[in-house]
Design brief:
The protein is mainly alpha-helical. The chain has helices at residues 5-26, 33-68, 70-104, 108-140, 143-156, 162-170, 175-181, 187-209. The radius of gyration is 18 Å and the shape is globular.
């Protein structure tokens, strides 16, 4: 059956980056469009990762749980779907504000507050998902079906961003979980991707957060 540990790893990365975003936005001096561009590009990336992550659940996870999970799934999946809708509204709000701030460096407080609202809904959602949904997935979703959720994410993402996105997840990831995620990949991929991904995220974090080792969720 499904090994859901990779979902915890993905959630940790999302928690970290969305918690840090409001302060990153507020730290940009008004009118500093060069720095706003750096932070905005990072925000667009993590928002895209979140959107793709939830799209995979909507398409490939909720229907299987409703079909197989009985009363347990019937009681929780509608709440998950409602939370996804609320997160999409928050996502639309921040993306609607990002363009103007990115080009002018003005309106940081409004954008930071929008990110705070989005983060609050997202953190609540992920906590409930880990408590209620992942145990159901372990019982009702096969390993092959679970793998297809990850495949959807990779297929829907920009190929140039995949190493960075994986490095973002690896930053606080359990080495055993990382090994399991790469287990079906060809040997060169298993050997190279962890090295490249770590380097990509370290360089990205230095540019965005000012350090290759930004504050960890578990720290």
């Amino acid at each position: 059956m499904a090994d859901v540990r990779d979902m915890y790893m993905a959630h940790t990365a999302l928690r970290r980056e969305f918690r840090l975003l409001p302060a990153l936005v507020r730290a940009v001096a008004p009118g500093d469009t060069r720095r706003a561009e750096v932070v905005a590009a990072h925000a667009v990336l993590v928002c895209a990762i979140l959107h793709t992550h939830h799209e995979g659940e909507d398409l490939l996870l909720w229907p299987k749980l409703v079909e197989r999970g009985g009363e347990e799934a019937a009681a929780i999946v509608p709440a998950m779907e409602e939370q996804h809708q609320a997160i999409e509204k928050g996502h639309a709000e921040v993306t609607g504000l990002l363009g103007g701030w990115r080009s002018t460096g003005q309106g940081a407080d409004e954008l930071a507050e929008a990110f705070e609202r989005l983060a609050a809904v997202l953190l609540e959602h992920m906590a409930l998902e880990e408590k209620e949904i992942l145990p159901l997935a372990e019982k009702h979703v096969t390993a092959a079906e679970w793998h297809k959720i990850g495949e959807h994410g990779m297929a829907s993402s920009s190929k140039k961003d995949l190493p960075l996105a994986f490095g973002m997840a690896m930053y606080e990831g359990d080495p055993e979980v990382i090994k399991a995620v790469l287990a079906t990949a060809p040997l060169p991929v298993r050997l190279l991707v962890p090295v490249v991904a770590r380097r990509r995220y370290a360089a990205h974090a230095k540019r965005v957060h000012g350090t290759p080792t930004p504050p960890r969720v578990g720290a």
